[in-house]
Amino acid sequence: MLPAMAKIQFFAFILLYVASNCISVNVDNISSDVRIKNVDRSIDISSQLVKISSKITFENAGKVPVKQFLLAVEGAAKNNLAFIGARDSNNKDLRLVETTVKGHDNVKFYRVELKEPVNAAASVVITSDAVFSKALLPHPTAITQQEDQLVKYNKKELSLHYKNNSPFLTVTRLERLIEVSHWGNIAIEEIIEIEHSGAKLKGPFSRYDYQQDHHSGPASVRSYKTLLPASASDVYYRDTNGNISTSNMKVKKDSVELDLRPRYPLFGGWRSHYTLGYNVPSYEYLYHSGNEYLLKMRAVDHVFDDMQIDELVTKIILPEGSTNIKINFPFAVTRLPDSLHYTYLDTKGRPVITFKKSNVVENHIQDFQLRYTFPRILMLQEPLLVVGFLYALFLCVIVYVRLDFSIHKPEHLKE
């Protein structure tokens, strides 16, 4: 067995290149004028995710300042890359742009733009962070209820086989619905399909042994914690059988902690499906100046620690009458066609903005910004519709009671 944290100083998933010239927007050259003096790399494989942090020191051996360099992910590792970022010595994030280099078709490159150019004979220290999902393989692929889970981690130069009973949970699909109201509330609902992606359960499952022996099923998932915003209220959590009341909610200073406990423990290959919903006040996320509005919210929220999501679909329902919709994302997403959503008292339908992203991890818990125009006078539309409907109803009742639909006239009218 090897420890779950390995600290090494050799290149593995990420190769380092330095680019001093840019041919076009998405094509770069590799320069040999920059020398890498030292790389201190830390690989964290204690959970189901592989997290690599590299502290890179390089110097400019050329004659012209260097304004950017390249990070590269090659081979099969690029298919498992969920997030990559870079920070300078002041711990400030640097801008990354995906690019290409001729002659390296099997490599995915990211151009890192420095805030200050590196002059000739000068050095700079940069920290790179990368997160890989599904890079740990259960080995063996099936275990009994009593066995520990062993996983295998391969690179060209290194192979690790060790015990890892951390929750190997994968959200196969998460549909996040954000419904915006100008009456002071934003409703959020998430439909979550989750699967235990670790070693599959081999042999029968004994609930008696599982309940009597706390060491039974060490790789199974009994429960996990989800964090909601501190202002979340009216929280509900249900599956196909109805509300799940065995889970607990704890209100903290900066968040609401949900201890979610499925109806049955999750072993390797087992799945669950549930819906989580809550409300938050709109003044914390919605800003406006006149008829111009800005919605600033997270594209995805915390589901569980070291989460990995195969597919995220986020839908934003805006008030009816919203126009000039513009949205900015902190990372690359696939924008789906806009649609309309109809509910009570709607006439034209509410605009729905939809986007999706694959391979999502905790590093993607970032805010998007959505701007739109909404004439504030339209807020009177629904109250006026209600008043008009009630007025028409009362008018019909008044007319009805005053009309005489009888065939025979009363005796006192015949005289």
Automatic annotation (TrEMBL):
- Entry-linked Pfam families: Ribophorin_I
Q: Which UniProt keyword terms apply here?
A: Endoplasmic reticulum, Membrane, Signal, Transmembrane, Transmembrane helix
Q: What is its main location?
A: endoplasmic reticulum
Annotated Gene Ontology cellular components are: oligosaccharyltransferase complex
Indicate whether Signal appears among the record's keywords: yes
Q: How does it sit in the membrane?
A: Single-pass type I membrane protein
Q: Which InterPro entries match?
A: Ribophorin_I (IPR007676)
| Swiss-Prot/TrEMBL GO biological process terms | protein N-linked glycosylation via asparagine
- Lineage, top-rank taxon, reads Eukaryota
Instruction: Give the transmembrane region(s).
Output: 384-403
Q: Where is the signal peptide?
A: 1-24
Q: In which pathway does it act?
A: Protein modification; protein glycosylation
> Can you say where in the cell this protein is located?
Endoplasmic reticulum membrane
What is said about its interaction partners and assembly? Component of the oligosaccharyltransferase (OST) complex.
Role, per record: Subunit of the oligosaccharyl transferase (OST) complex that catalyzes the initial transfer of a defined glycan (Glc(3)Man(9)GlcNAc(2) in eukaryotes) from the lipid carrier dolichol-pyrophosphate to an asparagine residue within an Asn-X-Ser/Thr consensus motif in nascent polypeptide chains, the first step in protein N-glycosylation. N-glycosylation occurs cotranslationally and the complex associates with the Sec61 complex at the channel-forming translocon complex that mediates protein translocation across the endoplasmic reticulum (ER). All subunits are required for a maximal enzyme activity.
Its family remark reads:
Belongs to the OST1 family.
Name of the featured protein: Dolichyl-diphosphooligosaccharide--protein glycosyltransferase subunit 1
